[in-house]
């Protein structure tokens, strides 16, 4: 079968000279052999040398196929973040003493992360055995159902159990990232992830706004005749978040193809007969170990910000917080996440071109402890105002500076998503690597918020002028330093060697997998 341009769909291996080399991880090297493929409306050229792969002509990004995965990513962020503006108010409504609200709300938030950490690795063999699509569809549908059910909880234990159930569906998050990588090739993967990665931030942007404005709708904007919403004041935001999950399921069912059909699974098994990489090999691979640790540390800090900020904003002034109403908290969180989207689109690529990637990662990670310093400054500024006064301009200025610095810190997560492809020894381990990073990231997301929320709860027992009141922010700042230290050591090469060979091994084998897959598809089309 020939393509529209008359070229054979069989791969052609040729020599190429002086290929342009795109931005890759510092530990990988460019390549010179060219593997060209043309067929089914796509065309790409990939160059190979002795040290790894690069690409000169990008394939078209499959936007329609990626859209359901982006929507599922939005649902993931929304389901996580929709409870943040009201979770503390909900826990207090269950009869919990205010000084203990932070601990129990952290339990509800951490339950999702802990169950994600346990369940994420289980989805790799399921997806390899039964295909990506069916496992993904089941997880996304149950995601929507679980999100709706959270609106009916009536106790702390029910809230913890419901969030824990949502975490057991971690396969949706693992497989969405894996399928984006498989729908794209080496030439357009950066563009694909540039669309996919910000989708989580869109969900995190909309989640707090929806949770803040739609919680307790009676009698704020609905009459008392809505008795169901009177009995369950947090059902409406849960319905909206769950509907997003159902929409992701519906669009995935219609538009999302299987990225690992049986024929391609056979191709991977043929390849594995010669290389036989495994989970043990992956975990022993030093470059991947470093990235795995960084995922855990970075997620711990990033999601601690997501959890502690609403608690800090909700807590009374005399206990060390800002004492803001729920709808105001939703606006602040939504603005902060919207700022993240804008900065990721406009500022991130500019800095990426101007700063070496390894230095860029270190600087981003250092922004987290720097942003933490602003918490006591914001409290002091707001506490000096009148008892029932709104946010003053000085407080707003400090909050804005903190948001800017913190969102630059979040660039580190985008950098890690691109680095991971060059730190695994085989593309057949991609779903395993994603499940492991998702699991370790979930552990960080569980431990970080719980530790800092616990110390914040303890700090409320001290007088406002006591040094122990501010100890929580010192601990939080220290939590952000190990990641920057590890990234700096990786830059100096003391974090482990062999990354260059990792890029080489991954790149060459990925080319073989892609070419074998395209051959197989071409043969099936002929038949």
TrEMBL record:
Residues 65-495 form the Major facilitator superfamily (MFS) profile domain. GO terms for molecular function: transmembrane transporter activity. Signal peptide: none annotated. One of its GO terms (cellular component) is membrane. SUPFAM superfamilies: MFS general substrate transporter (SSF103473). Residues 1-37 are annotated as: Disordered. It holds the Pfam family MFS_1. Residues 1-20 have a biased composition (Polar residues). This is Major facilitator superfamily domain-containing protein. Keywords: Membrane, Transmembrane, Transmembrane helix, Transport. It is found in: Membrane. It comes from Dioszegia hungarica. It is a multi-pass membrane protein. InterPro entries: MFS (IPR011701), MFS_dom (IPR020846), MFS_trans_sf (IPR036259). The chain crosses the membrane at residues 134-152, 158-180, 192-214, 234-256, 292-312, 332-352, 359-379, 436-458, 470-488. PROSITE patterns: MFS (PS50850).
């Amino acid at each position: 079968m020939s393509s529209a341009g008359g070229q054979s769909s069989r791969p052609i291996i040729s020599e190429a000279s002086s290929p342009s080399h795109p931005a890759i991880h510092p530990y990988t090297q460019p390549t010179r052999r060219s593997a060209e493929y043309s067929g089914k409306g796509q065309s790409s050229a990939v160059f190979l040398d002795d040290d790894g792969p690069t690409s000169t002509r990008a394939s078209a990004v499959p936007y329609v196929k990626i859209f359901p995965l982006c929507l599922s990513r939005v649902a993931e962020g929304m389901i996580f973040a929709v409870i943040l503006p009201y979770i503390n108010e909900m826990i207090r409504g269950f009869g919990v003493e205010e000084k203990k609200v932070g601990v129990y709300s952290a339990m509800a938030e951490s339950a999702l992360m802990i169950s994600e950490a346990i369940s994420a690795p289980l989805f790799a063999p399921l997806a390899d055995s039964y295909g990506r699509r069916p496992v993904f569809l089941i997880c996304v549908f149950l995601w929507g159902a679980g999100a709706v059910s959270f609106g009916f909880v009536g106790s702390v234990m029910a809230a913890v159990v419901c969030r824990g159930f949502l975490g057991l569906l971690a396969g949706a998050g693992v497989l969405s990232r894996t399928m984006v990588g498989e729908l794209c090739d080496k030439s357009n993967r950066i563009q694909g992830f540039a669309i996919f990665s910000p989708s989580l931030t869109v969900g995190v942007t909309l989640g707090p706004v929806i949770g803040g404005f739609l919680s307790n709708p009676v009698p704020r904007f609905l009459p008392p005749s809505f008795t169901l919403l009177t009995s369950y004041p947090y059902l409406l935001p849960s319905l909206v978040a769950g509907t997003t999950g159902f929409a992701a399921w519906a669009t995935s069912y219609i538009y999302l193809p299987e990225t690992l059909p049986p024929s391609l699974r056979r191709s991977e098994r043929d390849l594995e007969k010669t290389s036989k990489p495994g989970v043990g090999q992956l975990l022993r691979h030093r470059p991947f170990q470093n990235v795995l640790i960084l995922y855990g540390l970075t997620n711990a800090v990033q999601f601690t910000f997501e959890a502690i900020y609403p608690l800090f904003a909700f807590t009374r002034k005399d206990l060390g917080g800002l004492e803001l109403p729920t709808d105001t908290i939703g606006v602040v969180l939504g603005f902060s996440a919207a700022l993240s989207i804008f900065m990721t689109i406009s500022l991130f690529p500019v800095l990426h071109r101007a700063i070496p990637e390894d230095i860029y990662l270190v600087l981003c990670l250092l922004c987290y402890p720097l942003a933490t310093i602003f918490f006591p400054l914001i409290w002091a500024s707001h506490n000096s105002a009148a008892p029932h006064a709104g946010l003053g301009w000085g407080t707003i200025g400090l909050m804005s500076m903190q948001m800017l610095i913190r969102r630059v810190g979040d660039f580190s997560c985008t950098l890690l998503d691109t680095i991971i492809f060059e730190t695994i020894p085989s593309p057949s381990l991609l779903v395993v690597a994603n499940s492991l990073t998702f699991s370790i990231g979930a552990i960080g997301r569980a431990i970080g918020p719980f530790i800092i929320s616990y110390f914040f709860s303890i700090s409320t027992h001290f007088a406002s002028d006591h040094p122990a009141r501010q100890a929580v922010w010192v601990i939080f700042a220290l939590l952000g330093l190990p990641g920057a230290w590890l990234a700096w050591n990786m830059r100096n090469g003391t974090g482990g060697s062999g990354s260059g060979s990792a890029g080489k091994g991954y790149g060459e084998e990925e080319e073989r997998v892609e070419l074998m897959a395209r051959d197989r598809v071409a043969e099936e089309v002929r038949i």
